[in-house]
Amino acid sequence: VLMQNLKTHQQAVASASVADNAVHARGVWHRPNVSGKETTLQGLCEVLDTFADAGINMVFLETFYHGMTVFKTNRVQYYKGFEQFQYGDYPDYLTAFASEAEKRGIEVHAWVQDFYIGVSDENNFVKYYPDWLLTAQNGGYRQTEGKESGGYIFLDPANAEVRQFLVDFYDELLTKVPQVKGLNLDYIRYPVSSVGDDTGFTATAMQQFSSRYGLNLPQNCTINQFISLLNSNNLQNDWTKFRAEIVTGFVQQVFDMVNEKHPTAMLSTAIFPDFQVTYNTKKQDISTWLENDFIDIVTPMVYYYEASQVQSAVSDMMEKCKNCFCYTGLYATYHNQSQEELLAQINASDVAGADGFVLFDSAKTFFQNDYSDVLQSNFGSVHSTLPHCVTDFTVKTVLTELTQRFSALAEEGKENADKVKLFQKEAEAICGGQSADEIKGALNRLVEYNLTQYVSANNAQAALQILRPLQRCVEVRCGRDAVKGVETFYTSTSDDGNETPPSGGNSQTPPDNPPSDDGNDILPLVGIALCILFVGVAAGFVLAKALKKKR
Which residue windows are transmembrane per the record (predicted)? Predict the structure, then answer.
């Protein structure tokens, strides 16, 4: 059915890959009311229905931006204009959006712009906390970055009060709106800068740096005097390192707060894939963040035009994401590229091993441009579990469906019945695992060694297209559990010994139905995917080869 609905040969080729993942993140970055409809609860729900129909199962909702928020709190100004909007019984936009999204099986994470607070002098931070603002090399708080808008305004990462303020704000947000399942950290950096056009010269930062490196600052030290000391002592690289360490310290501070107070919440970050460039220009030491396991999910901004560029960048990124999930940030809709090019980029991301994708942004995807049809055709009726929500129940559901499919093929004489029974026996053993490590190890053995013993090469390859992403997600989920000291993967046994399906929020459900906690949401996907793969496996392989040659 999926194949027949596609309009072109290229779409057909791409869809054979993009639509068959039992475990897949399909996200979008969304700015509140960019649709123009979200001034009422009804309009907000219409937007969420649009996302759900398109197969979106995750939204990074812009929650702290321009120094304001769409969450009512005493800490940060409520976003101008939103006070006149009404959302029924919900107290604010964020609570309404996250709650209604949860009803539709869409998981919401708060996308926060950390140190960047916009371009307006009317910002409350500018008015009431001038000592918190970052200082550029020219002595002002307007940065060179964003000069077309008068210069961006940033908070000072070196200021401990700033860092604690943000951490406390995020803690309050996650506490009061539990429907928000994580934080997506953006602008977690210094403004783009270079030698001669640098930034970060607050009195706080200069004093901290001088104390660390034994510099004797003159009284009322100026920026030019400080830079002269850097140059005369050959400390320019150390100045870069110092600021990068401050940013890393803040990432750890947020991670520690989330891990201690909201251990099931996910911490993600929007980053560019060239780590060396971002270190030098933005003071982001992303390698250290990943090496120290501070990040649950990376959303690399792979903003290229060509699918081959996407695949190359994601392949490099996956080498660095052994213990975190990777949801590729894609820009095809923002670039107003064709539907075929969007599918090709999603396919390239999947081929490179990413765990899903996030589209930037909702305005260019759904409201200014319209990619709804192509997304709905490929993902709207295909439910998928979010990788970071995988549990042992997900594994059992997938293996049960595979067993049923293999058994049906055996009844048709297309597979050896005795070998399929051996597969069933191994699948049942995996499902009966008594711990996360036991299930993970048994699944690894099936995928890496045993599957090809039970079914033909073509059907084994088809099954691996579903099992390998699942295998990676189980590996990462268990690794994240170990880092955070929690047990979220293994859920099958409650205190009374009865099997317990995972809680809600693990998968997309159709917008017309209430969220389901019965764990069966994955079955439709596996059925559709395996029908495509097993019934038309030969055609699928031919098409895949054709695509490879074409690229």
Answer: 522-544
Q: Angle 59-28-18 (CA atoms, 0-180°, nearest 5)?
A: 115
| Residue for token pair 């939103």 | 82
Rounded to the nearest 5 percent, the helix, strand and coil shares of the chain are 50, 10, 35
Residue 357: phi, psi to the nearest 5?
A: -145, 160
Residue 454 predicted with pLDDT over 90: yes
Phi (first) and psi of residue 86, to 5 degrees:
-120, 135
Among 144, 154, 311, which residue's Cα sits nearest to residue 246? Answer: 154
Instruction: Give dist(CA 217, CA 229) in Å, integer.
Output: 8
Residue 393 structure tokens? 């129940």
- Give CA–CA dist 258/64, Å, rounded: 17
What's the pLDDT at 20? 58
Does pLDDT of 360 surpass 80? yes
Q: At 171, which amino acid appears? A: D
Query: CA neighbours within 13 Å on the CB side: how many for 151?
Result: 17
| Spatial distance between the Cα atoms of 472 and 354, rounded to a whole number of angstroms | 10
Q: What is the rounded distance in angstroms from the CA atom of residue 53 to the CA atom of residue 38?
A: 17
Q: Are 117 and 111 in contact (CB under 8 A)?
A: no
Please say whether the beta carbons of 504 and 515 come within 8 A: yes
Q: Measured at the alpha carbon of residue 520, what is the angle toward residues 20 and 111, in degrees to the nearest 5?
A: 70
Q: How many CB atoms lie within 10 A of CB 21?
A: 23
Q: How confident is the model at residue 455 (pLDDT cuts 50, 70, 90)?
A: very high
User: Is the pLDDT at 463 greater than 90, yes or no?
Assistant: yes
Contact predicate 478/491, CB 8 Å: no
> Mean pLDDT across the chain, nearest whole number?
88
3-state secondary structure 470-509: HHHHHHHHHHHHHHHCCCCCCCCECCCCCECCCCCCCECC
- Letter string b/e over residues 202-241, b meaning 16 or more CB atoms within 10 A of that residue's CB: bbbbbebbbeeeebebeeebebeebbebbeeeebeeebbe
Is 264:290 a contact under the CB 8 Å cutoff? no
pLDDT digits (tens, 9 = 90+) for 280-305: 999 999 999 999 999 999 999 999 99
pLDDT at residue 316 greater than cutoff 70: yes
Q: Residue 266: phi, psi to the nearest 5?
A: -100, 140
User: What is the three-class DSSP state of 28?
Assistant: strand
* CA–CA dist 149, 308 (Å, integer): 34
Amino acid at 164: Q
Contact between 384 and 21 under an 8 Å Cβ cutoff? The reply is yes
Pair of tokens at residue 168: 């406390």
Q: What CA–CA distances, in Å, run from 185 to 3, 64, 257, 301? A: 38, 10, 14, 13
Residue tagged 């036991």 (tokens):
438
Cβ atoms of 206 and 143 within 8 Å: the answer is no
Q: At what angle do helices 203-213 and 236-261 cross, to 10 degrees?
A: 110
Q: Which amino acid is at 50?
A: T
Please state the φ and ψ torsions of residue 506, each to the nearest 5 degrees. Answer: -90, -10
β-pair type (325-330, 356-359) = parallel
Q: What is the largest CA-CA distance in the chain?
A: 88
